[in-house]
Amino acid sequence: MANSSSMWVLLIVAMAALVAIPKAEAISCDNVRSTLTPCLTYILGQSPLMSNCCGGIQGLYRQATATVDRRAICSCLKGYYSQYAQYVTPLIMNRISGLPGSCGVKIPYNISPSIDCSRVV
């Protein structure tokens, strides 16, 4: 009987521990910004595509394991576009939208100012 009670207590404690584990936060815009900063000179046409830019994009892609992460990244990119829209020429937009593919990362949507981030899965 005591053995059965111990098992129940252990099970309840284990379940309580699982409930108490906090959910991971979605990827932050600060993280996205710092990851993409090495890409700015390429995006602006001031340098060729550098390995630290692609390394950042590949790392960000690996971090985006859940839909909430991918939507957060999308929203950050869209917000940055809105913030700097007056500076974004068609050439710059082409570099931005082609950046994942140029770095060997396949994403299931095109980066554009009109993307509906709620549809990103």
3D architecture notes:
- The protein is mainly alpha-helical and 121 residues long.
- The chain contains 6 helices and no strands.
- Residues 4-23 have low confidence and may be disordered.
Q: What is the gist of this entry?
A:
The chain is mostly helical and 121 residues long. It has six helices and no strands.
Q: How much helix is in the residues?
A: 55-70%
Question: Radius of gyration, Cα only, in angstroms?
Answer: 21 Å
Question: How far is the first residue's CA from the last residue's CA?
Answer: 50 Å
Number of distinct beta strands = 0
Helix count, DSSP H or I runs of 4 or more residues: 6
Q: Name the shape in a single word.
A: globular
Classify the beta-strand content into a percent band: under 5%
- Secondary structure class reads mainly alpha
The average pLDDT value, as a whole number, equals 82
Largest sheet composition: none
Topology:
Layout (H helix, E strand, L loop, with lengths): L1 H19 L8 H8 L3 H4 L7 H13 L3 H18 L5 H13 L19
Attribute tags:
mainly alpha; 6 helices; 62% helix; 0% strand; globular
